[in-house]
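Rotation project, supervised by the postdoc (A.L.). Task for the rotation student: set up a whole-complex structure prediction and record inputs and outputs verbatim in this book. Inputs entered:
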Amino acid sequence: MAKKTMKQGAKRGTGQAAKGRRAAQPKPGLLAAQLTKIAREFHGRGWALGTSGNYSAVLNANPLRLLITSSGLDKSALTERDFLEIDGAGNILAGKGKPSAETFLHLAVAGKREVGCILHTHSVWSTLLSERFASQGELCISGYEMLKGLQGVRTHEHRERVPIFANAQEIPALANKISNGLGRENQTHGFLLSGHGLYTWGVDVAQARRHVEIFEFLLEVIGRREFGGAPVTEKQ
Amino acid sequence: MAKKTMKQGAKRGTGQAAKGRRAAQPKPGLLAAQLTKIAREFHGRGWALGTSGNYSAVLNANPLRLLITSSGLDKSALTERDFLEIDGAGNILAGKGKPSAETFLHLAVAGKREVGCILHTHSVWSTLLSERFASQGELCISGYEMLKGLQGVRTHEHRERVPIFANAQEIPALANKISNGLGRENQTHGFLLSGHGLYTWGVDVAQARRHVEIFEFLLEVIGRREFGGAPVTEKQ
Amino acid sequence: MAKKTMKQGAKRGTGQAAKGRRAAQPKPGLLAAQLTKIAREFHGRGWALGTSGNYSAVLNANPLRLLITSSGLDKSALTERDFLEIDGAGNILAGKGKPSAETFLHLAVAGKREVGCILHTHSVWSTLLSERFASQGELCISGYEMLKGLQGVRTHEHRERVPIFANAQEIPALANKISNGLGRENQTHGFLLSGHGLYTWGVDVAQARRHVEIFEFLLEVIGRREFGGAPVTEKQ
Amino acid sequence: MAKKTMKQGAKRGTGQAAKGRRAAQPKPGLLAAQLTKIAREFHGRGWALGTSGNYSAVLNANPLRLLITSSGLDKSALTERDFLEIDGAGNILAGKGKPSAETFLHLAVAGKREVGCILHTHSVWSTLLSERFASQGELCISGYEMLKGLQGVRTHEHRERVPIFANAQEIPALANKISNGLGRENQTHGFLLSGHGLYTWGVDVAQARRHVEIFEFLLEVIGRREFGGAPVTEKQ
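Outputs recorded:
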């Protein structure tokens, strides 16, 4: 299992971590350590307070094996033991605790994209903008140099379409909706759940983390513009 | 006394700290250490600057015994020795210093709710929103996933009613008003004092701390929406 | 000299530092260490970036002896050796470097008030509000519990009048203006220079630091209200 | 080479680092260490997230030798080995990795100004204001005491004209435009690229860093004013 993933990692190796050195073999322990560090960092930056946020890493693509945070834990105190290994149907293969209901959203992303890591955050700006643009079903971002921090984007003229799905507590239905939505969007780097937060991903943990940072920056820029007297239509 | 509280803690044990392990016996020294850590953290996050903020933990429910911060201390430099043990009438049982006048608000909450910890903060957003919505006597929050961080809330469709009481310096009268107000609100997780700040609580210190974090997040979201050109009535 | 100051400190001892223990003798070395710590803290909080900000402590009241930061130093890298001892006319008694032109504003305050420490900061909100209210010559703050963090204030109904002086590079004339202005304001805890920043003070370093924190909080509250679509006239 | 630079540094020595001691000889290793520290600091302050930002220091003025960050690295994890030495045409003289396309903008600045260090950041406020004022081709800042933190500015009445260039991915053409623009602006301390960020510089690393801090402060002040209901025309 680990060997297959390593090869796949090497093929995909376009993330930050992969530059200039061979991609590290994604051992569960190492990935749990990386995700724990990210959980504490994101808590400190206000992107996943209280028990909000879930973080996962792909241990194997086919059949799908995912390492994911257990449900209901305070992210400021997460440890490397607070992760589960699950299969593509959400069954627990290893670890204590229970998976979050949102695990199925991670599985939906992992089933549609060649990803190594999926990060879900709840920032103030993602909450505000996902709510304000919910009726349009999307937020489009264009004209910012920072867009080039998203994998494969080469110019600020890129138009990043961020789908917005209505929030729901019936996760399997929502997972289907997202799976269908993502199937038609090959260039998508993330999506928003209305009044809830952001999902983004990357080929490895470092790239996914960078995508959170890039999106949070762009959402803050648009949020301050949008909630600061300047109509967003001026820009787009 | 400690034994009773432990049992009670076990019965109530739905807070973060209680998950996956037996609730720790609430020894005054340990609670003072936890509250001191919180005081410094909240100061660093701008939620209780200068001498503002009071923090308490229930040592015994019946008869009521409360551990509470002494009055007038700078919260950035609080130590574990800056706490008092008081009874349900506010008499000092142990510790140096004098209790804050607001001690009676803590007693009012502890007398009405099954709580292990009560935290009072003064953030910018709680100040702004408590002032703006004072004439309505409440702030209602609905539609945000983050609401699920409040104990017992299962859906973002939950409507959290946060009562707002007019600020006053005659604390006993205010305490009566709050006690009566809370008596009619079984689902309330906190309240605001106009132009002053937030009171929230939990079954233990970890849950109360998480409630502060959840409320501060929600107040920032609503504050940025409300002070950013979008009418709050659109949402509610 | 040190002895006199100690007695005076004991008489005045209503600051945070004086509570629960005898006021420490204000030795220059200790005061320089305290002010250095504050300089780094305030830089980290964005209240005195670059070379902005000056900090002083009274070594002796009569004749006046002031310990004050040298001019033109980056406050993120201030050390305990970057202070001067000056007399009431601004002459250097000890230390290397040259005094800032604004030293005369510190002397104006120290000559009019019973103070042990004077702190001058340049935050975003003090800059914005001092500019917006410059034509009124004052900013009045009322209705906030946090006002009680200012020495001697007992109720949120207190009306704190913060004088605003036009900024100027001819410091002696400005110092006269401030000296005259403060002479008529016994209850003033600080003043603003338009487009420039805040001056506040206290009986000792701890109290002055707390006053900065309280003012910065109140200015942020009013700033967000004022620059967020809500007319300030509603409140006052 | 190092000797020439030291002399030149001594002649120019008006930066913070040069005060009170002889300017340090700009060894590549020391400069890389200083720029690495700045990269991590600026990442932490939100001024250069993800892979954004480039930092350079002049190793020799004539012929031009520049030490500059390699392209595409995450600035939160930059190390002292992530720098290249290049000549005035952008050829690599030492180091691994490839230069960023924006290297030519650094060369354009270094060719026009007597500088020792050039820093490029991407903050929220520089992004927002460079976009809003793009059609005017400049942002003018006047009336703020903090302007005195820019080298050579003696009064808040100074009018700092910050040119704004349209963002472009064809860097050589943009570099020419900037080079021509800077040629006519002897008093300029920095410029903006629309929707992109800030370039500023100084005689040494410390002064350039201070200029970033000063500009970021001023941009936040103007940004909050501009996106907070107050027309910028009131001020200017």
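Student's summary: Chain A touches chain D at residues 16, 19-20, 143-146, 148-149, 154-157, 206, 210, 213-214, 216-217, 220-221, 224-225, 228-230, 235 (CB under 8 Å).
Supervisor addendum: The first helix of chain A runs from residue 2 to 12.
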